[in-house]
Amino acid sequence: MATLVAENPRIYKLDGPAMETVKKYILNGQSWKAGQFLYTDTGDYLKTCATVADASTGGIKYLALTDQDDPAVNTTLAEVGVITADMIFIGNELDGTVVATQVGDECAIDVTSNVVTINSADTGNDAVEIVDLMCNLSPAEYDIADTLAKITFKIIPTALEAAQA
Hints:
Layout: E1 10-13, E2 21-25, E3 37-40, E4 46-48, E5 62-64, E6 77-82, E7 88-92, E8 106-112, E9 115-119, E10 128-133, H1 134-137, E11 150-155, H2 157-160
Antiparallel strand pairs: 1-7, 2-6, 3-4, 3-5, 5-6, 7-11, 8-9, 8-10, 10-11
């Protein structure tokens, strides 16, 4: 058992050679770290997804490819990755309580200090589906009892297809 360091999600599996990217304007006041999830508001400006982001809050549409400081204007473009239903991410579970029976469950994200983790205990704000536990995929490296355990997950269709908010 180890205490892992929470890191922003990264792509674990991708159908195809590369992630599609687009350039979008950043909403004034927004800043993020690479690997954070993003969406666009009704003005089509990029915003960071917050804790419990789901279909009702604009969903999860993009992956931050680089760190971004607040541009202080609405005229700064950022290149971001377009998330699709076939992408599988690797990330940390919020408190390490994920168990094998939760594979296939849908749950929420948590965002604290620009770091996205998966909150497997919150099934009321579904945004992701747990695909597998890294202790199953790489048992020499990970343990089921790890704090901030590593899991693989994908963004659920309702979060990907959500209306701008």
